[in-house]
Amino acid sequence: EPEVTQTPSHQVTQMGQEVILRCVPISNHLYFYWYRQILGQKVEFLVSFYNNEISEKSEIFDDQFSVERPDGSNFTLKIRSTKLEDSAMYFCATKDGGSSYNEQFFGPGTRLTVL
Amino acid sequence: DQQVKQNSPSLSVQEGRISILNCDYTNSMFDYFLWYKKYPAEGPTFLISISSIKDKNEDGRFTVFLNKSAKHLSLHIVPSQPGDSAVYFCAASGGSARQLTFGSGTQLTVLP
To answer: Does B9 touch chain A (CB under 8 A)?
Structure first.
C-alpha cells in the first residue's frame, strides 16, 4: 500500500541552525501539508501546498519557515534559524483531492530537537 | 484555539464491549470530520470520516455519528479489541485548503 515517507526520523540541531525536513508524498496525490505536534500539545496545521504554491498557512508559519517541491517528488520544510520552541514532531500529510472521504495520509514524522 | 475539543483524555474498555469516543466543535463551517488513530512514534492513521451533510457513517467495526445541532460527533468501536488501544484524534476539515484542526486526543485502552 502506498505511504508517505519522511526523512530523517530524528534531527538534532543547535539553536540558530537551518534544518530541512523531507517528505515523499504518495505518487498521485496533489495536496501537501505540514503539521507539527509539540510534546503534550495538539497536532497543529502549519502550511498547505498545491500546484507548486502555498495555498494556506497558519500564524505559526512565519518568515523562518519555507516549503518547496525541489524535484517534483520530494516536498520539503525548511526552518532557517531554529529556535528552542521549534522542537516538535513534524508530520507531512498528502491528499489526492478526489477522495469522497477528504482524508489526508500522514507520514511517520520527523522528531526535531533544538538544543 | 479550542475549535475542536476532546474532553476525555483517556478511556478504558473491556475487550468485546463498545468504545465510545466523543468530540465537540465550535466552527459551523467545518465540512468534514475525521477520526485518526495514532500509535507512539508513528503518524496518525486515518480511520473514518463523515461529511457535514450526513449524520452517520459506518465502516466495519467503526461508526461515526454527527449531531450538527449539538456540534458533537462520536466514534463507536464495536466490538473493541486489544489492538485498538491507541490515541484517537478527532479532526475537522475547513479553510480554503481544507486543512485539519485536531482535538487533543483520547487514549483508548482495551483490556483483555
So the answer is: no
Q: Which amino acid is at A98?
A: G
Question: Which chain A residues touch B100 with a CB distance below 8 Å?
Answer: 33, 35, 43, 45, 93, 104
What is the number of residues in chain A?
115
Write out chain A's pLDDT in tens, 115 residues: 789 999 999 999 999 999 999 999 998 898 999 999 999 899 999 999 998 899 999 999 999 999 999 887 899 999 999 999 999 999 999 998 777 678 999 999 999 999 9
B36 touching A, CB under 8 A?
A: yes
Q: How far is CA B74 from CA A40, B5, B88, in A?
A: 23, 12, 11
Instruction: Scan for cell 475539543, then name that residue.
Output: B5
Burial class (CB in 10 A: 0-12, 13-18, 19+), B62: middle
B106 grid coordinates: 483520547
CB contact under 8 A, B49 and A103: yes
Evaluate whether A73 touches A80 at the Cβ level (below 8 Å): no
Residue A32: phi, psi to the nearest 5?
Answer: -130, 145
Chain B residues in contact with A58 (beta carbon < 8 A):
99
Asked if the model's pLDDT at residue B94 lies above 90, the reply is: no
